[in-house]
Amino acid sequence: MTQAALSPETLATIEEAAGLLRGNPRVLVFAGAGLSAESGISTFRGPKGVYNDKEIARLTHVATFAKDPEAVLSWYQQRRHQLTEVRPNEGHMALARLAATGHYTIATQNVDHLEEVACRAVGTRPEILRLHGSLARVRCHSCPNEYEDMMVDLSSGPRCKRCTGPLRPGVVWFGEMLDDEVVNAAMRAASECDVCLLVGTSALVYPAASLPELAHEHGAKLIEVNPEPSALARKCRFQLRGPAGVVLPALEAALGLQQPR
Ligand code: BV8
Ligand code: ZN
Question: Where does 57-152 show beta strands of DSSP type E?
């Protein structure tokens, strides 16, 4: 889809929304699976969401790891392998370039590292907070041992070298706490930002989705980039109805950073 396919209303709203991103603002980007959709990574909810398969939804709950570790580990190993085949899309790249126009913090629910790959490619260094962890990391289910390792094959049921406990992906499952330091840093960014840019999220999962709410309570303006309204759409000053890979480059163009496509 190109920018020409965006509705005239959406193009006009993008021009208006760009006004909030001028003048070196403090921006909290709250990213979800929709940002990676155009990289070929499935979203969780919505018409093509993987959670439509109840078996898959089950695999993201901590209780399932105790009951059925093989099913959990093979699904996560497949997703880890997919990381070696995907790359940032135009939405990630535009976000990475936008990060040079203000004080940007990216609080992502995604576990695919694509925001970081895009920022490295364009040379920007926004703070990236991984709210739900990372597919590239493995950790022990029994002790604090955790490290980045894309080589270990989790589907073989590897054990921790420190305590022989079971290794699992370094992600946060339903029923597990998020990392305190990450949450505190994200809440600080939410309470201090001028703009919160929600990109590709249904905004249904807590405590992550409390971040845009906190930003809103502190007077930040919310901008949503999503083909569909999220659960927080009514709190958004601007709702940019289109795919991130088209809308974010259009936002860049509206800021005079890119030629419209
Ligand atoms: C916790 C793992 C405390 C990694 C994930 C009742 C009410 C409120 C809360 C709860 C409740 N019951 C239970 C809870 C807590 C629960 C929760 O929030 N449940 C919700 C669903 C009701 N939360 C937790 O359990 C959290 N921990 O609370 O701890 C605790 C601890 C111990 C004991 C008791 C309490 C942990 C939450 C983390 C869960 N882990 N992922 C992985 O496998 O990836 S979350 C899961 O949903 C995903 O991983 C993702 O990170 C997250 C959010 O999804 P989205 O990113 O928004 O994606 P989604 O598919 O939903 O939406 C995509 C959007 O993109 C759509 O809007 C679509 O329109 C749009 N889109 C599509 N294409 C595009 C696009 N947008 C732009 N461009 C496109 N091209
Ligand atoms: Zn261990």
Answer: 103-108, 127-130, 133-140, 146-148
Give the amino acid at 218. Answer: H
* Residue 3 exposure: Cα atoms within 13 Å on the Cβ side: 19
Give the model confidence (pLDDT) of 146-186 as tens digits: 999 999 999 999 999 999 999 999 999 999 999 999 999 99
pLDDT value of residue 261 = 59
pLDDT tens for 92-126 read 999 999 999 999 999 999 999 999 999 999 999 99
Testing ligand 1's pocket by substitution, the residue of 64, 110, 205 carrying the most ligand atoms inside 8 A of its CB is 205
Q: Report CA torsion sign: 5, 6, 9, 13.
A: negative
Cα separation, 207 vs 36, whole angstroms: 21
Strand order in the sheet with 133-140: 146-148, 133-140, 167-171
At residue 144, what is the residue type? Answer: P
Query: Ligand 2 mean position to 80 CA, how many Å?
Result: 21
Fill in the DSSP letter of residue 205.
Answer: S
Ligand 1 atom 53, closest CA: 205
